[in-house]
Write a structure and sequence with these properties.
Elements: E1 11-14, H1 22-30, E2 34-37, E3 42-45, H2 49-57, E4 62-65, H3 68-78, H4 82-85, E5 88-91, H5 94-102, H6 117-121, E6 133-139, H7 145-152, E7 156-166, H8 176-182, E8 183-188, H9 191-200, H10 206-210, E9 214-216, H11 219-227, E10 233-235, H12 241-258
Parallel strand pairs: 1-2, 1-8, 4-5, 4-6, 6-7, 8-9, 9-10
Antiparallel strand pairs: 3-7
Helix pairs in contact: 1-12, 3-5
């Protein structure tokens, strides 16, 4: 994290799912900020977990994980990861790869940069997949691009949907007065996270929220945020907690220079 980061006690809204918020919260505290955890996505078991469990036990040439949630939920379902270790494993980005390594299923296919389907599909090992059996491990209703492209390249593709994302049941309205006194920055790790934040917060508070500096993980997230009315947006240099915190630091430096 950059040495210039001095958040000076300002609140930073951390919108990651609860199980993934600790790392970013610690970095914000180390930078002198006050993390405010407000998960806008709740991770729940998949609707058809038995089908996902059966797919995870089959033999595959390649198994691709699209998120840390996919790793955690797949291993919880599979119990024994021995079948997965027989396949060539891939991760959509470095954060997912790190989660896999910590779980004992180190991936061989990881994009050197980027953290999306496009980056994964650019790997040479995934350009010649004709006749290969490929399992994509994801949440319900994930992006179609990865599977569609691999199918076009001749692979036999299946999806193990190991979790679903839900909107938390929480009354955010009661928190707004306190946030308006202490909140300086907002973070969002996906378009869905940001959309859910806007859905959870009363519309009367949207103009205030959109006026706060926002840190996001990708240019695609930034474009979506701007379309939703956010005016000051910083993009993380890498898809990680450190990258997101560094984006908040850049926002704080820009604000200090403007004063």
């Amino acid at each position: 994290m950059s040495s210039y980061c001095r958040l000076e006690g300002r609140g930073v809204l951390v919108t990651r799912p609860a199980a993934q918020a600790d790392g970013l919260c610690r970095l914000i505290e180390a930078a002198g900020g006050r993390p405010i955890s407000f998960p806008t996505v709740e991770i729940q078991p998949a609707g058809d977990s038995e089908r996902a469990r059966a797919l995870l036990s089959e033999s595959w040439d390649i198994v691709l994980f699209v998120s840390r949630n996919a790793v955690d939920q797949a291993l919880a379902l599979a119990g024994d990861a021995s079948a997965l270790r027989l396949a060539r494993l891939g991760a959509v980005g470095r954060a997912t790869a790190a989660c896999m390594e910590q779980s004992g299923i180190a991936p061989q296919l990881v994009p050197p940069s980027g953290f999306d389907s496009e980056s994964l599909l650019a790997l040479p090992a995934l350009t010649d997949v004709a006749g290969r059996r490929v399992l994509i491990v994801r949440g319900e209703g994930g992006r179609a691009m990865l599977g569609d492209t691999l199918t076009e390249r001749g692979a036999e593709v299946a999806f193990a949907e190991v979790y679903r994302r839900a909107l938390p049941q929480i009354d955010a309205g009661v928190l707004i007065p306190q946030w308006q006194q202490s909140l300086g920055y907002v973070t969002a790790s996906s378009d869905e996270v940001l959309a859910n934040l806007l859905a959870l917060i009363p519309s009367s508070a949207h103009p205030w929220l959109r006026g706060l500096p926002l840190a996001v993980l990708s240019e695609r997230n930034a474009a979506s945020a701007m379309e939703n009315g956010f005016r000051v947006v910083a993009v993380a240099a890498e898809a990680s907690d450190a990258g997101l915190c560094d984006a908040v630091c850049r926002l704080s430096m820009a604000a200090a220079e403007a004063r």
